[in-house]
Amino acid sequence: MEFTINQVAGMLGGEVKGNGNEKINMLAKIQDAKKGQIAFLSNPKYEQYIYTTQASAVIVKKDFAPKKEISATLILVEDPYSSFTALLEEYHKMISFQKSGVEQPSFIGDNSTVGTGIYRGAFSYIGGNVKIGNNVKIYPHTYIGDDVVIGDNTVLHASVKLYSGTRIGSNCVIHSGTVIGSDGFGFAPQGDGTYKTIPQLGNVIVEDNVAIGANTVIDCATMFGDSTVVRQGVKLDNLIQVAHNVEIGKNTVIAAQTGISGSTRIGDNCIIAGQVGVAGHLVITNNTSIGAQAGILKSITEEGGQILGSPAFDVKEYFRAYAVFKKLPDLNSRLRELENKIRHLESRPVQEINTK
Amino acid sequence: MEFTINQVAGMLGGEVKGNGNEKINMLAKIQDAKKGQIAFLSNPKYEQYIYTTQASAVIVKKDFAPKKEISATLILVEDPYSSFTALLEEYHKMISFQKSGVEQPSFIGDNSTVGTGIYRGAFSYIGGNVKIGNNVKIYPHTYIGDDVVIGDNTVLHASVKLYSGTRIGSNCVIHSGTVIGSDGFGFAPQGDGTYKTIPQLGNVIVEDNVAIGANTVIDCATMFGDSTVVRQGVKLDNLIQVAHNVEIGKNTVIAAQTGISGSTRIGDNCIIAGQVGVAGHLVITNNTSIGAQAGILKSITEEGGQILGSPAFDVKEYFRAYAVFKKLPDLNSRLRELENKIRHLESRPVQEINTK
Amino acid sequence: MEFTINQVAGMLGGEVKGNGNEKINMLAKIQDAKKGQIAFLSNPKYEQYIYTTQASAVIVKKDFAPKKEISATLILVEDPYSSFTALLEEYHKMISFQKSGVEQPSFIGDNSTVGTGIYRGAFSYIGGNVKIGNNVKIYPHTYIGDDVVIGDNTVLHASVKLYSGTRIGSNCVIHSGTVIGSDGFGFAPQGDGTYKTIPQLGNVIVEDNVAIGANTVIDCATMFGDSTVVRQGVKLDNLIQVAHNVEIGKNTVIAAQTGISGSTRIGDNCIIAGQVGVAGHLVITNNTSIGAQAGILKSITEEGGQILGSPAFDVKEYFRAYAVFKKLPDLNSRLRELENKIRHLESRPVQEINTK
């Protein structure tokens, strides 16, 4: 994974000023960069660093006019920031997909098939009747139960657990420790105070382009043929709870430690902050924005709402109410004072005046 | 796991109408069922589907009178819904307990014994001096430390972690990623601002018929001979925190992401919703019901209470207070208006009248 | 791990009364202790037990004068409680560090080095270019990615996951299921409602003497060369979320289920209770104390503050406001009553009097 500066300039459609044959193997910030690394200069505030940087190459704006000598080779482009970001993404892809082959020992059950370009880390477990696409990266200690299906280019980090029957789309990334397909929390109370387990026989479907953080849990649906569904483009953070039969709509983003209770449907393009709790059997409409630590007890039907509080209501109203909440002891005193004053006013000898 | 329709009817004490020799291997909803599957019809709303279903068999009420021709074989019973549920449970049991034998590689330490009918998945780890009962299912990547004891018929899903000395009863189910017996969070502040670790030397005892969700954590007790205890019949959801020396009483149910702080005792038959926080060293009496996101700062001594809020109090009072909270800006305005009016009233020339 | 009572007395600088050659192998509470175990008597309330205990040895105060016969051997010391605690710590250290050697199968990549006295449990995975110090204990199913560095005497419990490039100091303890170095939650919204992944290329640095509980997650920093940093002496409980680019200052303690959002800096010697949420890009100054379930939306600049609520403010003010909150329906009634009274006062025929 080493390129010459000329090769990088080629990818970016940029012009080289200096020694284009030097090799670079890493990206870095201009103030930290060392030999063999490439940096960028976009914000003029950082211009000072270009005269002292040890970077082998710096990406600069086409019309950049140096005020002093620069030892680094320059790559001249239209927009240094987007060029650098593009390089970052390429680099990231290379890092993510550099692993390939099968490390031993690893386990694969009967009738399971895997595509080309796959990585199967040591101690990874693939059950029976599993179908895995091309370029899938399965890190060590990952558990894939029976009858699981996984699309192309999906990355399962170390110790992801997929219960039997789970379906994962293409281009998904799932981080370490996340559990998909565990039993929904369903128990029927009995006359004697004990609970009977309601069998959980559905599965989980995760569509394409979904990212899921670390140590998150998504439970399976209760009934045969039913699924807990995470639609395409959804991004879930760490330590999130998604209960049985939940559906999360397209491109919805949910931050860490939020919990969605059973059978609730979240719409498309919602933004849900951290530590939010959503009760069961609700419908949250598209484009809803829910603030951190909010508690949602009823369905939301009007699109574009922004809510906060537990139970949650309009965020601006919440902050207005909370501002008064903070002054409640003062409010209480003012109220008491008024009560005294009124008692006093009421006792004024108005009657007597009248009779005078 | 294939039965003839006659065999299934036999289990249910039902009567067969049609070809009882056909084989079925799956349960399904009547609107989704395919050949080889069995469905049920209980709610008349769904009657339409029985005339078009591809199910091989449908369980119906004894007195069901078809209005058109039905291609599926019928099984006539008293109560189709409970018959179907009974089948579901049988099926679930079969699924759960179908795994058996030892996959390789797996690890077992010295002086450890396992019962009959056991499943030990690949990459499962059993330490030394471990005692495991009959029909226990240990999925891949499960870690069982030294000196652990596990009763009969217990299922440990992939990557459950039991620290040394943990005791798990019979008929328990523990889901993936759950950690039992990790160190309690005990640190003694030192004069220089650092903390000294208080050794955590107790263990965790989980009694019979307990279900624990995924990625939950139960810490061990601090002292030798002491235990964090989860009593029989308790059901814990995903991502729950149970701190050192906690005791959770019989048949108590706790939803996802709730945390119980150290040395607190939760009574029997309590229902605790999601994202609740309970402070340390409290006693929560039997039959207490705690609403989602509540924060419990003091012991609860009166049975049958329902509480909400942080700090929590009676749920009905909480909602009444919260209803006013939402109108606090309005309350504040009304108060200000009264203050103005009173100022006005006070300035009325009452004295002058008197002196006139 | 068996010692004679004489040996233990030697460690404690105590005097033996009785048979010093008897062997002990465990510590226990005086009321529970059995043969082969050692207990202590400090609080006079427990004196009764010393006459009936089956402990082989009891640590007592130098000037302890028994009122009856005692069968246990006594060890006379200045301060029985600290002597027992010292023994506990020694025992704990022995337990923690008794594991050594390499169990098979285990995996180690190219160019990786490990120190002396190491334990590598079965199914543990060490990637390439990893550097591990002396006396490090790596429990089964632990995943250590490429280029990781770990100091001396650190313990990684079963199934800890360290992503590539993570740095862990010396004398750290990390509990099961914890994930360090997973991708930060960074996505750039696109015009069509989808999100583009922002590559996460930094790492995580955990300094010396840090303890981290079970199933906690610490994300890596976004940019190359940047790090999410956990400073020396920090203690993190279970199920905590630490987002990308966060820095947690020296000796700060954080309880379970708390979440710190991206790029926030927590100061030194802070105490953060459970289920707290801290928003992103904030600075929390040293010695700040944050109560359970608090939500922090702005930076805290004054040292020594104690805050509560969501959004949080001074804890005493919070409780005062909350006390009034609970009586809001009553406040509302009082306000309504005042409004009625004022309406009545205003309607008094003052004008008429004046004109009289």
UniProtKB/TrEMBL annotation, chains A, B, C:
* Annotated active site: H244 (proton acceptor)
Name the residues that span the membrane.
none
Q: Name one Pfam family in it.
A: Hexapep
Gene3D superfamilies recorded for this chain?
Answer: Hexapeptide repeat proteins, MurE/MurF, N-terminal domain
User: Mind listing the UniProt keywords for this protein, alphabetically?
Assistant: Acyltransferase, Lipid A biosynthesis, Lipid biosynthesis, Lipid metabolism, Repeat, Transferase
InterPro entries recorded? Hexapep (IPR001451), LpxD (IPR007691), Trimer_LpxA-like_sf (IPR011004), UDP_GlcNAc_AcTrfase_non-rep (IPR020573)
Answer whether the UniProt record assigns the keyword Nucleotide-binding to this protein.
Answer: no
Pathway stated in the Swiss-Prot or TrEMBL entry: Bacterial outer membrane biogenesis; LPS lipid A biosynthesis
What range(s) does the UDP-3-O-[3-hydroxymyristoyl] glucosamine N-acyltransferase non-repeat region domain occupy? Answer: 23-89
Keyword hit for Lipid biosynthesis: yes
* One BP annotation, GO: lipid A biosynthetic process
The Swiss-Prot or TrEMBL record annotates one GO molecular function as: N-acyltransferase activity
The record's catalysed reaction(s) read: a UDP-3-O-[(3R)-3-hydroxyacyl]-alpha-D-glucosamine + a (3R)-hydroxyacyl-[ACP] = a UDP-2-N,3-O-bis[(3R)-3-hydroxyacyl]-alpha-D-glucosamine + holo-[ACP] + H(+)
List its EC numbers.
2.3.1.191
Q: Name one GO cellular component term.
A: membrane
Family the entry assigns: Belongs to the transferase hexapeptide repeat family. LpxD subfamily.
Q: What does this protein do?
A: Catalyzes the N-acylation of UDP-3-O-acylglucosamine using 3-hydroxyacyl-ACP as the acyl donor. Is involved in the biosynthesis of lipid A, a phosphorylated glycolipid that anchors the lipopolysaccharide to the outer membrane of the cell.
Among NCBIfam families, the record links this protein to: lipid_A_lpxD, PRK00892.1
**Assembly behavior:** Homotrimer.
Q: What is this protein called?
A: UDP-3-O-acylglucosamine N-acyltransferase
Q: Which gene encodes it?
A: lpxD
